[in-house]
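Q: My labmate handed me this sequence with no annotations at all. I'd like to see what the chain might look like in three dimensions before we decide whether it's worth expressing. Could you predict it?
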Amino acid sequence: MNKILKPCRSSCEMLMKNCMHAFEAIEMAWPYFLDCDRFFVGEEEGCYDPLERLRGVHEFVVDNSIPEQPSTIIQFTYHSHSQMINILKKTAAKCSDISRAYSIGHSFEGKDLLVIEFSNNPGQHDLLEPEVKYIGNMHGNEVLGRELLIYLAQYLCSEYLLGNGRIQTLINTTRIHLLSSMNPDGYDLAASEVEDAYEQEDAEGPRYNGWTSGRANGQNIDLNRNFPDLTSIVYWRQRNKGFRTDHIPIPDSYWFGKVAPETYAVMKWIRSIPFVLSASLHGGDLVVSYPYDFSRHPEEEKMFSPTPDEQVFKLLAKAYADQHPVMSDQSHDRCGGAFASKKGIVNGALWYSFPGGMADFNYLHTNCFEITVELGCDKFPGESELYTAWQENKEALLTYMETVHRGIKGIVTDESGKAIKGARISVRGIRHDVTTAEDGDYWRILPSGVHIITASARGYSKVMKKIRLPSRLMKAGRVDFALKRVVEPNRFVSIPQDNYDRFDPYNQFDEYRRSGRRQPEAETQEKPWWWSYFALLGNNQPTWLLRRN
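A: Here is what I predict for the chain of 549 residues:
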């Protein structure tokens, strides 16, 4: 028989159901010749079912092997800015019940600073639910953190949909924010140099130094030196009795300096959400450092300079380092440093001192505790190393977020049950308070042991409680406070409003932005990563595989 028989439409639909998610994952269009409408419906029209013999035996198995929501295929490759934005927005759309993508501003060259959020109530702060953030690519040429956060976003989405109990618990009890790239302009410069290096590669591979190229933003500003130097203010205040090391206002003089738009955007973001925990992902070494990053002696570049929360910061740093198989390995040193003997953690100022860092700013201006994670010796590792890096850091990234549930949390109200915003939560022996959020809730990360906790607010009496945190406590203990209002005698002069709420009071940044910053640029349509393999075909390139947006 010379008649050509084609598969029936049901066979095409089965193939499409099983394979479409793989095409979507790599942004490839479904082949036109597999358009199922082109196939006959049944055998009477001249088609056949190649799976007919297998269907009776394996149908039950096959149907149950296909999940309702197929797992995301993570591409362990580098992503341009537009590709990163596209992936994050698609991930947020795929998991719209637990995720959203939002912008906190633009870079100097106009690129979107896009954050993807995961929560059981995206877009809203839920009472007693702690807020966590990861920031990657602060230095444009330190790129691994950028990619890890792109992978993490896809992983959280797909694992939640697949019913991973650990991921579902994390997202249902924690509000997570991922800023994959704080410095997209610097990344573009560094990435372009990598491309040039590959064009000139020798037998040993591309020669990319990358120690400084792309580190700064589009204005040549090092973003991790551009935050207000509040640490110097703390050191100066230590001479006075009863000095504070928390919620220090930004000096008005800061705004008359050169403030990068990326720095400005992140500061507004930090002030707008009651973050509890944070990590900034860097590269060039393999260690976790924690505040203070600025030495308490201006002439000493390497001097141990602990915060009042030294114990807490060591706990947080170890939470990440201990889950990283190489960082926690004490058998040999890496990157020319001696951090193996320190179990992969170090006080920032003891390593090397610098002012204007983001971690110190988080700690001294807000309730947020931030560490700095150096992810590896190479600032711009080869693509072949990305999968290994993900495997080494995945558990550490998850464990660190879960650490936000260490310590205590609670609500501060008045006698009638009305929430008190801005109440101070003090821990005896730690000269650093946290304050309550808009709804009166607070979080205080603490090590295990016995603690004396005091809640206070202007116009209310103080309340003190003694608590004990067991070493194996897996979630934050609940400690609420009800404060009694006190009538202050008229002879007391009211205390003037704190300067903490003053943010760019003279609109210096807006003036500077109007005079010098570039306008946001339109995103250009880029070819997907796999197109380079087909580009060699010349005139026979399968352009029908490119998706039309």
